[in-house]
Prior knowledge:
Elements: E1 10-12, H1 17-27, E2 31-34, H2 40-46, E3 52-55, E4 65-68, E5 72-76, H3 81-86, H4 88-93, H5 95-102, H6 107-112, H7 115-121, H8 127-135, E6 138-143, E7 146-151, E8 156-158, E9 161-162, E10 169-175, E11 182-189, E12 199-208, E13 211-220, E14 227-228, H9 230-236, H10 243-252, H11 267-287
Parallel strand pairs: 1-3, 2-3
Antiparallel strand pairs: 4-5, 5-10, 6-7, 6-10, 8-9, 11-12, 12-13, 13-14
Helix pairs in contact: 5-8, 10-11
Bound molecules: flavin-adenine dinucleotide.
Amino acid sequence: MTSRVMQDFNLLLPETVPEALGLLASHKDKATILAGGTDLLVALKFDYAIDNVISLALISGLDELAFDPLLGLTIGAKVTIADIVKSEEVKQHYPALWQSAVIFATPQLRNTATVVGNILRASPAGDCSLALYALGGKVTLESTSGRRDVYLDDFWLSYGVTARQDDELAIAVTVPPPGQGQKSAFRRMTRVTEDLSKINAAVCLQMDGNKCVAARVAMGCVGPTLVRLINVEKSLEGEEITTDLLQAISDTVASDINPIDDIRSSAEYRLKVAGVLVKRVINLALNGGSDQ
Ligand SMILES: Cc1cc2nc3c(=O)[nH]c(=O)nc-3n(C[C@H](O)[C@H](O)[C@H](O)COP(=O)(O)OP(=O)(O)OC[C@H]3O[C@@H](n4cnc5c(N)ncnc54)[C@H](O)[C@@H]3O)c2cc1C
């Protein structure tokens, strides 16, 4: 039976990253991290109990949002969705990520929720996660034993499960610098803006004139994790993107996904709109803001 009464837990408030790592090392699977809390606090009210909650609130140095043309974009563990919306550099160089942040929930949510929390939640509906997946990001994880980077391609193992170990803190996510001719976009379909996506898609294309040199196309809400549409990517690569090609690609998307019925939508609806959404998001990337 579900209950809305939160179970008791110890709230731990480390002031430095090493202190947080020490707590993770000693508590392991008896502790969880609290960033913005927009997922965790909901879970704690319903179906999840944990002895120790380690808050990032007092730790400084995790709020870096920095762009370097050679190194790319670094998004620290405390960077919020609102920080992404405010960044002109994200808007200019990584439109997919910016668009995924602009449509994210409500102002209150955007001011609180973090990008890294979105990734660590491992939801197949995560909007910023999907944009970062298309852009090819990687997560930096740190424990008392050291640091390691895990590409998002290898990060989400199943619904709600990531490659993070119990004693690891996600420090940041980094995105490679945009290549020449890079175009990206994000789109979702949803009922009202406060709702999670019914289905979402993100694309990152490396273009040489009209020709697509490389493509990453990702879709959410169509399986237990976010997925890459590898067949769509192969159909785009090496080709001029014409209306005919887009229509042909759009017609094949449904055979590459495996959506389910859930409280937000039906498998039937998702199968019907997936191809249309892919076509629209590619047009949005190519037209730099307009998907007409
Ligand atoms: C009303 C509402 C609307 C929402 N709308 C959207 C939406 O439009 N799009 C969307 O994608 N999501 C949406 N969400 C989901 C949620 O807001 C996002 O997933 C958010 O980005 C989570 O970030 P957070 O900082 O709040 O994470 P938290 O709730 O603090 O944490 C989420 C999970 O990540 C782990 N975690 C967080 N940070 C770290 C870290 N640094 N290291 C290790 N583990 C970590 C936590 O332990 C927890 O398991 C919505 C939620 C609500 C309640």
